[in-house]
Each structure stands twice: as structure tokens, then as C-alpha cells.
Amino acid sequence: MLSFTFGGKNSFTDYGIIVSSRPSIPSPKRRVSYINIPGRNSNLIFDEGTYDDITIVLECTSKDRNNLMDKMDNIKAWLFEAGESDLIFSFNPNKKYRAQVVNSIDFKTVFRCVLDFPIIFNCKPFKYLVENTLSTINQSATEVINSGNIESDPIISVYCLGDITLKINNEQIKLIDINGKVIINSEIQDCYDDEGNSLNEKMTGEFPKLKTGVNIIEWIGTVSKVEILPNWRWL
């Protein structure tokens, strides 16, 4: 039985929805521009190193002999009120997409008690582990292995005092006059404390990424520990 979980609810157990077939899941398109320059052979290629969203279409069926209209309303409320939520398929339960329903759902009534309808999800380009496990590092020069197939945007918490140099592979981040915890969030490109106050003025360097394979986490200065929420992801 094919099903999916979205907004914390399961399509089959909560709404009796049957997914008719395993959906086609496209790979994200890489953003590359080609510029034609007169008098020059070939095109000039500009690769942004980023990806477009993907679209996943599900063909669904649901039955109800007594309250078909109520079921229709309940399904619409669930899908639209969930907004952007985790989308998990039963055939790949350990990974999730960040998705949102983007179509006006066209319900077709069949035999008075059956609904046929498509659901179209707009998804972020990558899929992520359902269990995004926090890693705690207590010693400099520790290895962290990226199990995904593309670099990730981690959320890194540094517990430190004074001026710190955090080094991830060959990239350095300098933290100035810190007393306590500083959070370096590469997903949203922001640096802040535990209460959400901005610390961007106390950070210099690029927001870090964790490459595929082995990453070396090092530091100089007084650091009690580093916590990494890795956000491993796959194309």
C-alpha cells in the first residue's frame, strides 16, 4: 500500500487515501545560464551552483459511502493548512522533502462514493534525513562524515569564550568577543545567540558548508564544545 505523510498526518490511516502508483520524482535542475558572445566560439557558461524546486504529482483515490463531501472538505483542509511541511513517502520512510501543495485540487466523483484527484507538491530541490541527529564535538580536529551526495548547510552551535577561530576543512570563521553560545546558521545565512539576537557583527568569514565525505572540524581558542545539526541531503 503506497501512502505518504504530510503535515504530521498519514494519507491512508488518517484519510483513507490510496496512492494509485509510485510517483515519478525528477532530479532538480541546476541553474546554469548560457551567454552568447558575438565573435566567440561556443557560449559563456555561468553556473550559479544552485538548483530549482521540483514538482511531484500524486494520483489519489479515496472512498466514503456516507459522507463523501465531508471527506473532501477534510482532505482539502489538511493539505492546504499544513503549508510548507515535511513530505515522507512510504517507499522511502527515512528521507523527507520540504513541500507544499500548490494546485487547486480537482475532485472527480466516481460511482457516488469514490473520489479521484491529483495532488501536486512543490518541493525544495533536496531530500533530507527524517532524523536530523545532532552531533556533539568535544575535541578539535574531529572528523564529521557527510553521508549525503551533496554538500549540506549545517546549523553549528559553538560554546566558547573570547575570540575564537573555527576551521572547517580549509575555511575559517572568526568569532569575536563571545561569552557563551553562538549559533552559525548556514541555512538562513545568519549568526545569533540562544535568544535570537543577531551576532553577525561578531562573525567574519563565509557561512560553512559540509562537503560530501570527510570534514575536519578544528578551532583555536577557548571552546567547551561544538554542536552540529548537519542537515544531510540528497539530490
From TrEMBL:
<dbReference type="InterPro" id="IPR008841">
    <property type="entry name" value="Siphovirus-type_tail_N"/>
</dbReference>
<dbReference type="InterPro" id="IPR006520">
    <property type="entry name" value="Dit_BPSPP_N"/>
</dbReference>
<dbReference type="Pfam" id="PF05709">
    <property type="entry name" value="Sipho_tail"/>
</dbReference>
<protein>
    <submittedName>
        <fullName>Phage tail protein</fullName>
    </submittedName>
</protein>
<feature type="domain" description="Siphovirus-type tail component RIFT-related">
    <location>
        <begin position="23"/>
        <end position="123"/>
    </location>
</feature>
